[in-house]
Task: structure prediction
Amino acid sequence: MQAVDDPLLSDFQAQITERPLMNSFGGLLQTSNLIGGKWRDANDGTTIDVLNPASGVLLGTVPNCGEGETRLAIEAAAEAFADWSRSNMSFRVGLLHKLHDALLDNCEPLAQLLTAEQGKPLAEARGEIAIGAAYIRWFAEEVRRAKGEIVPAPTADRRLMVTRHPVGVVGAITPWNFPSSMLARKLGPALAAGCTVVAKPASATPYSGLAWGKLCQDVGFPEGVVNIVTGSAHAIGGAIMASPDVRKVTFTGSTEIGKVLIRQSADSVKKVSMELGGNAPFIVFDDADLDAAIEGAMISKYRNMGQTCVCTNRFYVQAGIHDKFVARLKDATEALKVGDGSEDGTQQGPMIDEAGVKKVEAMIADATAKGAHIVTGGKRHAKGGTFFEPTVLTGATSDMQFATEEIFGPLSAVFRFEVEDAAITAANATEFGLAAYAYTRDIGRVFRLNDQLEYGLIGINTGLVTTVEAPFGGLKESGMGKEGGSQGLDDYLETKYMCVAGLDG
Ligand code: ADP
Result:
């Protein structure tokens, strides 16, 4: 069930070479910030502790930067933009290919660092590094096709040209659940397009982002093109949003914070791309291939301990297959190996923090009080800390908390339904619209689902849809803009139209 086992990733998996570490995380653990090509600490010397969520052990500290340091980073990025935006495309593409290679060459230490700060199983971490590298390669290729247009002119004396240009300095704010690949989806198109970047990784998982800074520097990106700042989200986010020099902000995180940033973007009319929360339905029809549905359910539910924005939040299972599906889901869930992500064979690591565990506990309490039945799991794991038992619960109903809120934990909530229309109506009954999954062998129904499901990503007979070639992004309150695909570059390019007149004279 690990991401790296998926056929979509096998291409990248083949390129990964495992090698013993020469020292701690291959020298990629950076405890300072990258600002204007220099590694520096917070102005006041304060730091933030970074803990390993599996052991609670202190991994190290990072600078607790704020407004002043962020302004410096923006200034450096604005200064670097002048040359970078006008550099040869072949130069930028060459550096991106070097970055891709450096990521794969360092896959093992990067994956170990990611597991150490985030908790996910090492196999999933390796998959994340590999797909991050693949995004960099994709955008290095895609920018070579970022064509403009010559438009037919209404009069003979004119020529009309549509050209594309980098938007400017980009602010990139990333979450803790995919601290490496979320940065890849933003850095890749920004750097390819000719933009410079000020990135703020999540405070729980800053080391993966700082390692990107180190690799960018090592492969030769010019000073100020990539800046990585850690510290107060409010202060750093505030400085990014307030600066007229930052022309675009790309954010992955909660809908709540996304709305704050959209409001803040109004003052300087910034472009924004938002990858926000989800509440994915997973619909299993009576005609589904049960083996495939269970495989997809495990991938879509339990990847990263249920802490992804495309994780299944609500299973809707048709009455005729419901009991068989639940029995198989129970067995598969109970077979998951829970442990420290760095140990061989671990499939479920710890959750990121105590707040995440408490949220899942509260949702289970709410559901059981309203009549849900726990089939397996349901409580904290005997391992302690933030480990939680992978849980399956049946008898879910629309008045339970998880019907409308994102669980973000290893809890499978199973609803029963009778007819197709009821499942689609229930699936759409949320303000979110990121990922939806369905298992059926009825081709007519597949197209009805495509028409009627209000979701930006739809997986039919698969629980994993993310791939660099396709646009990733949500509808409704799940966000705006796309990452990946040819669309993933569009948000980083401005379109200009030039009219050349007087050509007859
Ligand atoms: P999550 O629940 O996934 O942590 P958040 O939306 O809280 O989602 O955080 C996602 C990212 O946004 C993190 O890097 C976090 O530090 C940052 N963030 C949180 N609050 C703000 C804010 N007010 N302004 C800018 N960034 C913020």
Notes: Residues 173-176, 200, 202-203, 233-234, 237, 253-254, 257, 260 surround adenosine-5'-diphosphate (CB under 6 Å). The CA atoms of residues 433 and 455 lie 4 Å apart.
